[in-house]
């Protein structure tokens, strides 16, 4: 019986959001595995680069290194190699290796059981004597492989570059191409049409794939056999592993009553969708749940489940985990259940803004479940799709198109955006292109002209996307079942929440009173953003208008200008760039006007609670009664905040506090542990983020 593989590798979803099943997305990481172009480039580099011919006495760290080196040498010189013989000893294991030309030796004569000869097939073997023999020796406790014989004399014609790549040793169907071939085969495409489709998608000429049509045929036939053998086992494994996942959730709930999970079942009472979150995540959402990023870019190969994760960002700019979900499919109904469950987990709180990938089904679900929430598609979720969509049809004009398309992201006026979009579509003759139609239909979620002013808390940045990728890589291990996957998610989420921000000494750069005051209130992450805006504010000129408003321009550029409205009676300031509405940090234009108006401190309303130092130290509002510990805890909290603020003023203070505080807390902890453990009075001093 065939055994089921234990892999649960999660890969990025490749189906294109345009809805055409024949269209798929190639990610940057797939380039080396999935396209023919890198193979051709590698071959070209191998043929043009200098490579030392193997020689007797040449040393390798392992026999695998030697085989790889000889294989590269062979490809460069128009032949391939194979492993011939090896010798084993009890002391050294394999201690001799023979690598030979693929045409070495002669094909053995095969006979049928009745003595008749097999059908005479021509063999490529012709007794070629090209070879490289190796022997292993242990030198100072380290194993090394030495070349003991080498010959580069062939009795056959060597192949040119365009021929050698078609030798069996170099014909490989990489994983990304395998997925595409299986998808097309399942849709009923014949083999020759599949090959033609791959050539068109890669933008290469016929016959330039790194494999042949018969390789595709053999792969499809072999894979069908494996699928048929494993289908029943896979179905049983899915059911058992999902039940184990639910048991793990149940056990976690018993250990932590604030842990939350939910699931749905189909008409046959089989589990479809599962979602869960942790108490720390729910508490963190109370403070930092104003903006949420929902990542749904990965799918489990083994289980066929879509993996979605909710993320946020805390006051120190760190990525925080809110919850995750496993979905059976990608329909609006499944996404709606996921969103409903998330809100229920988060005690009914809907985010002010939600960031997602470009997915029509998810977009429809958000419209239905979060009607009052702003939906934003970060630019990085669009840019990585652009080469796949437009490079093949545009060819040499793609670079020009990419420049025009990038400029659209930065247009701030909707009328200008519409005008530039129409010009771009006309210039590149993309009027009937399905991908431009898709992008235009969701322009209100990605174009700066439409999303300007949506609160994003600095989450729509490349730096934030990299932190998301780092989290996902940490939980997608190669060999795991759903239960161990659940445990790994818990470990990663716990690490995110327990990571501590070290006390940082923050330098002042402008000597402006606004800067010094802001340093005592904002976290280092938020203060650095404000400080950068304050530095840039000095490069702008402000001209007062008759109505008291200001026109602010950069001193080197007169093209762009921003309108700043200052209302003195209410201590309010508004800028047309809407940076404060987007990030919660005042922009350089507004800061320039406030400096001119002799403000020494920013109005308190411009220090959002989510960016303040004390926001992560606040006591949960639900815990109105801390018992007899309330008074001393409030006193401790006040002292800790004051100490943190005072110590960050100079580096000397910061270093001194870190050194002395560690010693004092250690001493105090040891003394407390020596006191009696109970005195009959129970104290509740739990702390969590406040609303």
Automatic annotation (TrEMBL):
Keywords of the record: Metal-binding, Nucleus, Zinc, Zinc-finger
Primary location class: nucleus
All residue ranges annotated as the SWIM-type domain in the record: 563-598
A GO-annotated cellular component: nucleus
UniProt-annotated location(s): Nucleus
Domain of life where this protein originates: Eukaryota
Stored InterPro entries: FAR1_DNA_bnd_dom, FHY3/FAR1, HTH_FAR1-11-like, MULE_transposase_dom, Znf_PMZ, Znf_SWIM
UniProt KW Metal-binding keyword: yes
Pfam families (alphabetical): FAR1, HTH_FAR1, MULE, SWIM
Gene Ontology MF, one: zinc ion binding
SMART domains named among the record's database cross-references: ZnF_PMZ
PROSITE patterns, sorted: ZF_SWIM
Record-level GO BP terms: regulation of DNA-templated transcription
Family assignment from sequence similarity: Belongs to the FHY3/FAR1 family.
UniProt function note: Putative transcription activator involved in regulating light control of development.
Name of the molecule in the record: Protein FAR1-RELATED SEQUENCE
Taxonomic source organism: Glycine soja (Wild soybean)
Lineage, broadest ranks: Eukaryota, Viridiplantae, Streptophyta, Embryophyta, Tracheophyta
């Amino acid at each position: 019986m065939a055994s089921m593989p234990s892999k649960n590798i999660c890969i990025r979803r490749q189906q294109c959001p345009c809805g055409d099943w024949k269209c798929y997305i190639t990610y940057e990481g797939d380039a080396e595995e999935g396209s023919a172009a890198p193979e051709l480039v590698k071959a070209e580099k191998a043929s043009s680069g200098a490579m030392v011919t193997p020689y007797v006495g040449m040393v390798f760290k392992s026999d695998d290194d030697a085989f790889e080196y000889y294989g590269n040498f062979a490809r460069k010189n128009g032949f391939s190699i194979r492993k011939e013989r090896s010798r084993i000893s009890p002391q050294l294991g394999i201690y001799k290796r023979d690598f030979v030309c693929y045409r070495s030796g002669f094909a053995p004569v095969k006979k049928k059981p009745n003595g008749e000869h097999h059908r005479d097939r021509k063999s490529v073997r012709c007794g070629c004597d090209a070879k490289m023999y190796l022997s292993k020796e242990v030198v100072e406790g380290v194993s090394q492989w030495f070349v003991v014989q080498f010959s580069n004399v062939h009795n056959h014609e060597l192949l040119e570059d365009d021929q050698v790549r078609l030798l069996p040793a170099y014909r490989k169907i990489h994983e990304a191409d395998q997925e595409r071939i299986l998808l097309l085969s399942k849709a009923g495409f014949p083999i020759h049409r599949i090959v033609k489709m791959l050539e068109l998608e890669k933008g290469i000429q016929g016959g330039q794939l790194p494999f042949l049509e018969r390789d595709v045929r053999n792969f499809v036939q072999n894979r069908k056999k494996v699928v048929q053998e494993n289908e029943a086992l896979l179905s049983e494994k899915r059911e058992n592993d999902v039940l184990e996942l639910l048991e793990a959730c149940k056990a976690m709930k018993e250990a932590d009553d604030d842990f939350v999970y939910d699931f749905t079942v189909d008409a046959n009472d089989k589990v479809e969708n599962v979602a869960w979150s942790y108490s720390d995540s729910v508490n963190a959402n109370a403070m930092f749940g104003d903006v949420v990023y929902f990542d749904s870019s990965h799918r489990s190969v083994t289980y066929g489940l879509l993996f979605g994760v909710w993320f946020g960002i805390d006051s120190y700019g760190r990525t925080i985990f809110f919850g995750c979900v496993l979905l059976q499919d990608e329909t609006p109904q499944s996404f709606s259940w996921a969103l409903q469950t998330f809100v229920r987990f988060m005690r009914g709180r809907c985010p002010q803004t939600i960031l997602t990938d470009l997915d029509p089904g998810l977009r429809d679900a958000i419209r239905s479940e979060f009607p009052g929430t702003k939906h934003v598609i970060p630019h990085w979720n669009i840019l990585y799709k652009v080469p796949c969509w437009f490079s093949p049809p545009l060819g040499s004009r793609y670079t020009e198109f990419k420049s025009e398309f990038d400029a659209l992201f930065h247009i701030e006026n909707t009328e200008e955006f519409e005008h530039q979009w129409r010009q771009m579509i006309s210039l590149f003759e993309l009027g009937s292109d399905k991908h431009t139609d898709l992008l235009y239909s969701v322009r209100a979620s990605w174009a700066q002209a439409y999303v300007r002013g949506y609160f994003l808390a600095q989450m729509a940045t490349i730096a934030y996307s990299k932190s998301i990728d780092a989290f996902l890589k940490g939980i997608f291990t190669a060999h795991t079942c759903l239960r161990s996957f659940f445990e790994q998610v818990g470990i990663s989420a716990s690490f995110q929440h327990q990571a501590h921000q070290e006390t940082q000494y923050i330098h002042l750069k402008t000597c402006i009173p606004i800067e010094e005051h802001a340093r005592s209130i904002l976290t280092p992450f938020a203060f650095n953003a404000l400080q950068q805006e304050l530095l840039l504010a000095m490069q702008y000129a402000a001209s007062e208008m008759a109505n008291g408003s200001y026109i602010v321009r950069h001193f080197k550029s007169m093209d762009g200008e921003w309108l700043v409205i200052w209302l003195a009676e209410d201590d309010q300031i508004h800028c047309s760039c809407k940076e404060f509405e987007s990030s919660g940090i005042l922009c350089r234009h507004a800061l320039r006007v406030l400096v001119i108006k002799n403000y020494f401190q920013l109005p308190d309303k411009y220090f959002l609670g989510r960016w303040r130092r004390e926001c992560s130290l606040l006591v949960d509002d639900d815990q109105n009664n801390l018992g007899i510990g309330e008074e001393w805890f409030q006193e401790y909290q006040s002292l800790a905040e004051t100490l943190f603020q005072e110590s960050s003023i100079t580096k000397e203070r910061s270093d001194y506090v870190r050194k002395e505080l560690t010693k004092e807390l250690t001493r105090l902890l040891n003394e407390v542990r020596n006191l009696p453990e109970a005195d009959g009075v129970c104290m509740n001093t739990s702390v969590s983020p406040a609303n």
